[in-house]
Amino acid sequence: MTLKELLSPVKALKTLSFATESLILTWKEIASLFGLNQDIYTNPLHKPLAKPVTAILIGAGHRGNIYADYAFIRPDEVKMVGIADPNAVRNGRFARKHDLPAENRFYNWEDVFKREKFADAVIIATPDNLHFEPCIKALEMGYDVLLEKPAAPTEEQCRIILETAKRTGRIVSVCHVLRYSPYFRQLKQILEAKTIGEIISVQHLEPIEYVHMTHSYVRGNWRNSKTTSPIILAKSCHDTDILRWLINEPAQHVQCFGGLSWFKAANAPEGSTERCIDGCAVEGECPFSALQIYYRDKKRLYVFDLPDDTRKWNKIILRNLKKTNYGKCVYRMDNDQPDHLTVNMQFDKNITASFSMEAFTSYEGRCTRIMGTKGDIVGNMETYTVTDFKTGRETSWSLKTDYHGGGDHRLMQDWVQAVGHQNAQILSSTIDVSVESHLMAFAAEKSRLNKTIEPVILGV
């Protein structure tokens, strides 16, 4: 069937009137069918820059490099001019990639700000507990900021960042990259066009996937909420942000249940050892084996700062499994992050949402169901299906995307434009909106710990 035939109301109704029949279309075809904008990426506020924005990266880990790599895609828009990272390998690798002079390399973030301001902006991609101080210092010195999520590990610090950004007039963009993925951008358009009528409720699932959970939240840097931030913030402020964005109404109250059920000493199998390489009797059958994940399957290796020569990898991996937390038994860590959460939320207009974060899944990728007065939507970040109640018509879209749904560099594009033109309204999420989604997460954690229903209190 041609698109012209499909768009004929009689033909469309006759062909697509059965709920058992589903049509998979491109976004261009869906946009034509529903009367939507086909171009979801072009921001009308974008304009050519007089010169590239100059930026300093603080924290040259996995996320920091992803953002900084935008300089290779659009060298006319951004140029990296400095690096601060205590890891000599990462520091040197980044300096070589971006051809940085020795005087612009720092091993402590504090040293960046001992110099007079020498760039337009800073990108802060440090561990969670090192977001607040460099962000405040940068704002006070007149830098604009791209700030990896979460903005800060406490509610008080998030509110101070918001107040400081307003007082100094600087731009702060928190890295809510899911807003920039084609999947969520298209869902946003469909909802704004009232294609399924008024939103009544939303169900949203974040399957962390068991390897990711053990890597980041049992063995990794985010394993302990007291030294980093609660997992509802560290992992799922993406989700509180997306729910707030899609629903487009302020949150009023939240209620949260969940906790750490499995990854603790009481569940350690008989015969297990402190490290997976210490002769553990059950290593061969353990799905969380560090030997299996890192050494045999070669997953999540970016934490080991491996050289380009792959022949050296096995030796370096084994050395790290003997010395770092990545080689420890998942039942013998100092982790306290919940491995499952359920959050109930009430928004203005009596819209409700339920959110689940689950460690014990074999898959990643958010799954969302949106219920409206005229239809519903079911999606999983690679495909979604819109069903019309009146006709029974099902319309589906499918697309494979990269990490974070393809949003990382589109976020960078908006941020660079905002800094270059000194216009925070170019951003999809200003610091005001980002802090609101963080407040939802803080209220959820308070509810989980106290077994209460918590209000979401906005304002500085």
Can you tell me about this structure?
The protein is of the alpha/beta class and 460 residues long. The protein has three domains: 53-178, 3-Layer(aba) Sandwich (Rossmann fold); 180-264 and 335-403 and 430-455, Dihydrodipicolinate Reductase, domain 2, CATH 3.30.360; 270-327, no CATH class. The chain has 17 helices and 16 strands. It has helices at 3-7, 9-15, 27-34, 62-68, 70-73, 88-98, 109-112, 132-140, 155-168, 182-192, 210-218, 231-234, 237-247, 290-296, 313-323, 408-421, 431-450; strands at 22-25, 53-58, 78-84, 105-106, 121-124, 144-147, 172-174, 199-207, 251-259, 340-347, 352-358, 367-372, 375-379, 383-388, 394-398, 453-455. The strands form two sheets. A ten-stranded mixed sheet has the order 1-15-14-13-12-8-11-10-9-16. Strand 6 (144-147), helix 9 and strand 7 (172-174) form a beta-alpha-beta unit. It starts with a helix and ends in a 5-residue tail after the last strand. Mean pLDDT is 91; it is low at 1-21.
